[in-house]
Amino acid sequence: MDGRPATADDVVEAMREFVWFPPPRPASEFFSRFSAPRSCSKWISRLECNLYYYGTNYFILILLIGMSFLQKPVAILTAFATGLSIAFFSDSSVRHGRPSMKGSTHICGRPLSMWVFALFLFEVSCIFWASSCNFLIVPWALYVGLLVTLIHASFRERNLKGRLNRFRKEFREAW
């Protein structure tokens, strides 16, 4: 960001650089065929396969469960600000302290490094978490979301597509 308004080309370029999740699997497939695993090795294999194959569905599930625990509008805005600050911290230019390819960020006409901006946004979200009294609600929402994900991935039978995707992933990692 160099202080000028973003153009459509800038937005398209930013969207191309973003790593997109694979599309979510259909709900009819996601909620069908459950059984208990027969052994520990089968359970681990099933867990790995389902976590990889249904990863986007699990992300959406955890997000929906987490948002359902938040009851105050300030808490929802705070969750959004926290997610945005985490996204800024995961940016490689922020992590490594390199200048951005587009130049520095301007806030109120002053140049500001992305590291300082991400840290400021994180601080603001922490203050909002404290003011909305949701410190204990967020861990519970994450625990419930992760528990539901673990239970689903453990009992959902693997399908042929999931097995093929898992083998394709292992093949890519080997090469």
Which secondary structure elements does this structure contain, and how are they paired or packed?
Elements: H1 8-17, H2 27-30, H3 40-53, H4 55-69, H5 73-89, H6 92-95, E1 105-107, E2 110-112, H7 114-132, H8 137-155, H9 160-174
Antiparallel strand pairs: 1-2
Helix pairs in contact: 3-8, 3-9, 4-8, 5-7
Rg, Å, rounded: 20 Å
Number of E-state strands: 2
Order of helical and strand elements: HHHHHHEEHHH
**Unreliable stretches:** none
What is the terminal-to-terminal distance?
37 Å
Globular, elongated, flat, extended or rod-shaped: what is the shape? Answer: globular
**Oligomerization state:** single chain
Strand order of the largest sheet: 1-2
> How many domain modules?
2
Average of per-residue pLDDT values:
75
Helix percent reads 55-70%
Largest sheet: 2 strands, antiparallel
